[in-house]
């Protein structure tokens, strides 16, 4: 595929068809290495973007490099304009919008907060393995941090850098409320099952398929990138597949991501495994939302802080 490391697709360019401009290639391709050598021979220096991508073993800058758009793009404004780079920079700081399985923007029902406010806090804590803060707010472990749930204000905050910052992220808020309302006093079994073994497996087809294709596209040839993104999210490495991590979304909800790297014979593959107990706590839509959330956080590659959407 004649796409340059910068993301420009040479195969849809007339200059390429006419043979006046040769194909580029990714930072990990033979074509990319050949183009770099040609430029050095003919022009005396390679394209700095291609040279950097090759050195860092980055396939495509816009998809695979956490620094995109870096100074090499901004200083030369080649091949992208200032406006395009500014748009990329702005939108990369925003987490994807929280959506329901029907594709609608997610709204958190007020009744969930009301139901929790009317319940016995001690019963919720012992059933869900969470605790109460000194102010009587629920303190819910979430990935490698904590969510503080303020029942009076009906707001959540996330612990970050030794303090708390208010968080407006409907999917996180909804999952936290559902967990407090529905998690059962059932221990983690450590018996792992795939989506096909869930009682509600029929749910996870078509538009409700688990969000794994983008994980394969991004990390299928970049195990190290997968490890870095997983560890930034507090994932715990497990000895499965070529690389695998367990993400403890909430105390009773461990979710496992497994990745197999591609080679000449096999395509890369990603799989999610759940603890067999998950269906005691979460219905299919909450399981689907949990995987969406973790996949988005992995793709953004910067840990939970991207949930604030201000970089
Ligand atoms: S800008 Fe660089 S990486 Fe992009 S197509 Fe041109 S030579 Fe290749
Ligand atoms: S720093 Fe990243 S985005 Fe910039 S040229 Fe190198 S690989 Fe591409």
Total number of beta strands: 10
Largest sheet: 5 strands, antiparallel
Q: Report the β-strand fraction as a percent range.
A: 15-25%
How do the strands line up in the largest sheet? Answer: 1-2-3-4-5
Please tell me the overall pLDDT: 94
- Give the CA-CA distance, first to last residue: 32 Å
In short:
This protein has 311 residues and is of the alpha+beta class.
Note down, in words, how this protein is organized:
The protein has 311 residues and is of the alpha+beta class. It has two domains: 83 residues, no CATH class; 199 residues, no CATH class. Helix content is 37%, strand content 16%. The protein has a five-stranded antiparallel beta sheet, covered by helices on one side. Strands 6-10-9-8-7 form a five-stranded antiparallel beta sheet. The chain binds iron/sulfur cluster (2 copies). The site of one iron/sulfur cluster has 11 residues, from α3.
List keywords for this structure.
311 residues, alpha+beta, five-stranded antiparallel β-sheet, 13 helices, 16% strand, binds iron/sulfur cluster
